[in-house]
Design goal:
36% helix, two-stranded antiparallel ribbon, rod-shaped, mainly alpha
């Protein structure tokens, strides 16, 4: 046996031992050992970890580690075939890319490249990773997950409210407010884009049809403008409502001044008509609002009840909720407009005065 052969025979067990442990030590250390023991040349040694490659956790204890590729096998490129390596692997809790690569005897770089991952990519339990080129080229189909939630935009039109828009799309008002950074007191404007959250694409394309709008109510003919010193002529409808106010005032023991105040208030608010519309939820002769305690919509549209609520006093139909003329301290020393405003709380407190002349003339006509 030659010296070279004898030397080779002597070193072979060492090389075999060294190769068996190279897969269990860090790459940089493995490279140094391999060069020192003359198992690979410096060019074949695995490169040291770079700053861009994050340090990953080692595989869990007890994991199966496949035999690493031989020293002459290049593993930096994706594998197309390797004896004993399955084509794919399903990630479980606690796995890392480097741990999976080490377990199946492939390089971390190969595994990343096969699966289109980077050193910063995260993996998740249930994710299927390709271990060979065959698996990467023909991935097993996975069951489709639920449709990802999408959002859609809605352009506000005149008359819209957030609650009405939310109801149209079948989502909650609170979610629409939150998605658009709005509060319950926020105003929206025609043309404004509103985000509708939590919608699937199909639902976004086909919103629920809006509820049919109520049939429009024809507005009454405009009342001639009142002017100081002039008397507005009563129509039949106006006369009937004025007579009702006078009658109820007499029943409640209200003075002529109090009846004049009621006539002027009704003339300013509704033109002495029992209208079914008004500012916000205002209705009827005196434009009383259900939302502020004056009664239900049907109740404030009852001319007799509305008149008794305006006068108040002992027969106030809303005791403790609304205050009528007879409930106002010192009303008898107030002007017509001051007393009417104390009951009505109008945005135009001086407008009642323009009806005083007409109201006194109507009282004289009706007795």
């Amino acid at each position: 046996m030659s010296v070279r052969d004898d030397e080779a025979a002597t070193h072979e067990p060492v090389r075999h031992w060294a190769r068996s442990i190279l897969g269990t030590v860090p790459i940089a250390v493995a490279s140094s050992i391999a060069v020192t023991l003359n198992l690979v040349t410096p060019a074949q040694a695995a490169p040291p970890r770079t700053a861009e490659q994050p340090r990953e956790k080692a595989p869990t204890t007890g994991s199966t580690r496949m035999a690493p590729a031989s020293a002459g096998t290049t593993t930096s490129a994706p594998l197309t075939a390797f004896a004993g390596v399955p084509s794919s692997y399903t990630v479980v809790s606690g796995d890392t890319v480097s741990g999976i690569a080490s377990r199946f005897g492939v390089s971390t770089a190969s595994l990343l490249a096969l699966n289109g991952l980077s050193w910063k990519s995260l993996i998740f339990p249930g994710q299927v990773l390709a271990l060979t080129g065959a698996a990467a080229s023909a991935p097993a189909p996975s069951a489709p997950g639920p449709a990802a939630p999408a959002v859609t935009k809605y352009s506000v039109v005149s008359g819209d409210t957030i609650s009405r828009i939310a109801g149209r799309f079948g989502v909650s008002t609170a979610s629409v407010l939150s998605a658009n950074g709005l509060s319950g007191s926020s105003l929206i404007f025609p043309g404004q884009q509103i985000t509708i959250p939590g919608m699937t694409t199909a639902a976004a394309v086909t919103p629920k049809p809006p509820a049919p709008a109520p049939a429009p109510v024809a507005a009454p003919a405009p009342l001639p403008a009142a002017a100081a010193g002039q008397v507005v002529a009563l129509t039949d409808e106006m006369r009937g409502n004025a007579a009702l106010i006078v009658r109820i005032g007499r029943q409640e023991g209200v003075s002529d001044q109090g009846i004049v105040i009621a006539l002027a208030a009704a003339a300013q608010e509704s033109g002495l008509r029992n209208v079914r519309y008004g500012d916000r939820d205002s209705f009827g002769l005196f434009q009383q609002r259900p939302s502020t305690g004056w009664g239900t919509a049907d109740q404030v549209l009852d001319p007799e009840r509305a008149t008794r609520a305006f006068f108040g006093g002992a027969n106030n139909p809303n005791p403790g909720r609304t205050r009528g003329l007879l409930d106002i301290p010192g009303w008898t020393s107030m002007t017509v407009t001051q007393a009417a405003q104390a009951v009505q709380i109008s945005a135009f407190p001086d407008a009642y005065a323009t009806w005083e002349t007409s109201a006194r003339a109507w009282l004289a006509q009706l007795g």
